[in-house]
Amino acid sequence: MTGRKTALHISLIAVSAAIVAVFTIAIRIPVPATSGYISLCDAAVVFIASAFGPFTGFIAGGLGTAAADLAGGYPQFALLSFIAHGLEALVVGLIAKYGSNGLLMRIISAIAAIAMVAGGYLLLEVLILRLTFPVAAVEVPMNMLQSGAGAVIGLALCSAVRKAYRNIDSLRW
Amino acid sequence: MNADSYIHGNSFYHRFDVRPKLLFTLLYIIIAFMISSWYGLLLAAALPVLVLMHAAGAREALSSIRRLLPVVILLYLFMPLQSRDGIPLLSIGSAVIVTEEGFLTAFRISMRFIALSSVLMLLIATTRSGTIIAGLRFYRLPYNASLLLSILLRFIPYLGALFSQIRDSMSLRLQEGKRGFPIMPSVTAFIVAAVRMIPDTASALEERGFGRPGASDAMRLGNAPHLFTQFVFGAILPLIFMIAVR
Predict the structure, then answer these.
(1) Chain B: closest CA distance from residue A53 (Å)
(2) Taking the domains of chain B in order of start, what are their residue ranges?
(3) pTM recorded for the entire structure
(4) What is the ipTM, given to two decimal places?
(5) Dmax of chain B from CA atoms?
(6) Structural domains present in chain A
(7) What is the pLDDT along chain A (173 residues), one digit of tens a residue?
(8) For testing the chain A interface, which of B136, B152, B166, B192 should be mutated: the one with the most A CBs within 10 Å?
(9) What is the maximal distance between C-alpha atoms in chain A?
């Protein structure tokens, strides 16, 4: 029985991390104002944390974004992504687990996601990559935009997927 | 979509066993943070780039460096303005804009950044991801974690292809003349299809012997020729480099 449960947990985390990686690499919405793009990795991270809980969210969110960085040619950011997006999922997952399902909690989840990603990358780039504060701060507005949009889409996705696949809650642990 | 950045080749770094290669990479990163001389840092950044050029080709190496350029440019734009101590290099009137100390600090940080990025790039460009996992298993990465990583690496290209199919079929539903694809229906359908695979994957793992004694032996690396010598080189070369240029 324990072996079956462990196999299910490994499959859940691996498939969830793969979903995060695919969202990071394949789904990019262009931002004409900056000629850049927004990846939907935060939407997947928020969805997985809300649907499957904080622990699955932490490992899958961290591993998925780190794998996408490694595959995408940014290996130096893999550790940062693991920590920032892992913590983002952990906080969102804890809010979803212990909070109510109301609008206020969703807003708090979105704000927590923005704070963890924008603040996390800023801090980690200064502490680990040894970039200077002004250089690291350049990315903050883009990270806030990406994580904010991702959180809104992720929470909407959670409701939509629950309607389409009712067994999803049986996978939560 | 490919989850592997491996570039096929037969260079000496390709043939280097993954276990000493991982040790070399870790030591090189530590040493890059310990070197303080400007010529040492320049060499620390240039060495993995040159090996990457040899192993993966100049085009791939330059493409990796190009990805680092925005951060490096930002460093040179902002860092000298912050550090005002030392010999002035550029002044406007009585205001000192750039000092030698500020320029050197930007140089040190950018060289460490390039060294760290390129030695990691060198590892993943010359080693298949499955082999890296087996190498990490040698360094006592738990079996369950190794299994999780190998399933993840197999699922990324598979789910990437699945998403492309769903996106293409969803784009056909758009009105004539419109381009792109409807994001919410596409990602919802994709996630539902992916989540449905979780119980099947768990059953497949059980059928393949997960949890039974001896199942973890499949991920072990065998003996490689001259493994001890490779380990000695992997550990000693970074140390000699550090002593020589520190």
Answers:
(1) 14
(2) 12-245
(3) 0.82
(4) 0.89
(5) 78
(6) 3-171 (1.10.1760.20)
(7) 567 889 999 999 999 999 999 998 877 665 555 444 568 899 999 999 999 999 999 999 999 999 988 877 678 788 999 999 999 999 999 999 888 778 888 899 999 999 999 999 999 988 888 787 888 888 888 889 889 999 999 999 999 999 999 888 888 87
(8) B152
(9) 54
